[in-house]
Amino acid sequence: MRMKKFGNTGLVVSEICLGAMTFGGAEGIWAQIASVGQASADELVKTAVDGGVNFFDTADVYSAGRSEEILGQSLRNLAVPRDQFVLATKVFGRSGPGANQLGLSRYHIMAALDASLKRLQLEHVDLYQIHGTDPLTPIEETLEALNDCVRAGKVRYLGISNHAAWNIAKALGISERKGLARFESVQAYYSIAGRELEREIIPLAQDQRLAILPWSPLAGGFLSGKFSRDAQGPEGARRSSFDFPPVDRDKAFRIIDVMRPIAQRLNVSVARIALAWLLHQGAVTSVIVGAKSREQLSDNLGATSVKLSSEDLNALNQVSALTPEYPGWMLERMGSDRLNTLR
Question: Which residue ranges form the domains of the chain, and what is each CATH number?
Answer without folding.
Answer: 3-340 (3.20.20.100)
